[in-house]
Amino acid sequence: RWNFVLIVGNGLLGQNMSFFIKVLLGDFSRQL
């Protein structure tokens, strides 16, 4: 059960990080 929670948590964290990085790269490219 704990492994399942870790997998789901890592999946959500990965999605949030990729979205956050896309937003950061978008803002950075706009400032260039």
Molecular structure report:
By secondary structure, the chain is mainly α. It has one domain. 0% of the residues are buried.
At a glance:
The chain has 32 residues and is an all-alpha fold.
Task: Tell how many strands the DSSP assignment holds.
Answer: 0
**What is the structural class?**
mainly alpha
Which consecutive residue ranges, at least 5 long each, have pLDDT under 50? Answer: none
Instruction: Compute the average pLDDT.
Output: 81
Give the SSE order as H and E letters.
H
**Biggest sheet descriptor:** none
What percentage of amino acids are in beta strands? under 5%
User: How many distinct folded domains?
Assistant: 1
Helix content: over 70%
Shape: rod-shaped
Number of helices: 1
Amino- and carboxy-terminal Cα gap: 47 Å
Taking all Cα atoms into account, the compactness measure Rg is: 14 Å
What is this structure's SSE topology?
Elements: H1 2-31
Keywords: Membrane, Transmembrane, Transmembrane helix
Transmembrane segments: 6-25
Features:
32 residues, single chain, mainly alpha, membrane
